[in-house]
Amino acid sequence: MKIAFIGGGNMAAALIGGLVGKLAAAQDIHVVDINPDALASLRDKFGVSTAQAIDGSIAGVDVVVLAVKPQQMRDVVAVLKPFIGAQLVVSIAAGIRIVDISRWLGGHEAIVRAMPNTPALIGMGISGVAPHERVSTQQRAQADAILKAVGETLWVSGEEQLDAVTAVSGSGPAYVFYFLEAMEQAAAALGLSPAEGLQLAKTTFAGATELARRSDESVATLRERVTSKGGTTYAALTSLEAAGVKDAIARAVQAAATRSKELGDEFGKA
């Protein structure tokens, strides 16, 4: 498979790292980015070909991955349009809808929209994925293989669900880091060093998450198993409930979903 990445940032680098030598040879991956330092890094690390501008080389690839920011997408696609024929186009930009990319590409229909997350950097990401209705079975398999190079995929039943995916898993790593920061600070307030607090928080979070992944029981049941009435965990959870933390998390996720929809409205205007 020959693949071109438009944009050479962190997520593109993660995908390239998962693809090279597995799904595609380094010489079959081409990266376009205006940042020469980013391109030099990708060439040195993976041996891929690079360019600072979109040109005719894009016409010879099987898949084009759009890995640019939402606010850049329309201008980038306008430059890309003359070089798009039968290629599959995979967009990983938050909020930008398939219908708008298709319009900007003159009615091109082979488009898949995906929302990966930053654990892709270590091969442990998850991508919510939605295809244009005209995407073929083979193209769907191509998109799935590319995204699975850095983690799991979840194909949703409708593109509108990607706003929720963005809110839960796309933005989700930041929620985890925010919680870890809070635990680190709380540990320091209780007399542990910052390093000790962070070690305890990170290892506990990783272990609890893996336990949840391996267990057939619900996360509510797992929580109940650790919570003895009148005990230390009960005291902590009672405090969290009194502070409305669960509702605050729900509002935060809703805010992220709303913003994802707003991005599509804002940057997808005709």
Topology of this protein?
Blueprint: E1 3-6, H1 10-19, E2 29-32, H2 36-46, E3 49-51, E4 63-66, H3 70-80, E5 88-91, H4 98-104, E6 111-115, E7 125-131, H5 137-148, E8 151-155, H6 162-170, H7 172-189, H8 194-214, H9 219-226, H10 232-242, H11 245-267
Parallel strand pairs: 1-2, 1-4, 2-3, 4-5, 5-6, 7-8
Antiparallel strand pairs: 6-7
Helix pairs in contact: 6-11, 7-8
Structural features, described:
This protein is 52% helix and 13% strand. The protein is α/β, with parallel strands linked by helices. An 8-stranded mixed β-sheet has the order 3-2-1-4-5-6-7-8, with helices on both faces. The radius of gyration is 21 Å and the shape is elongated.
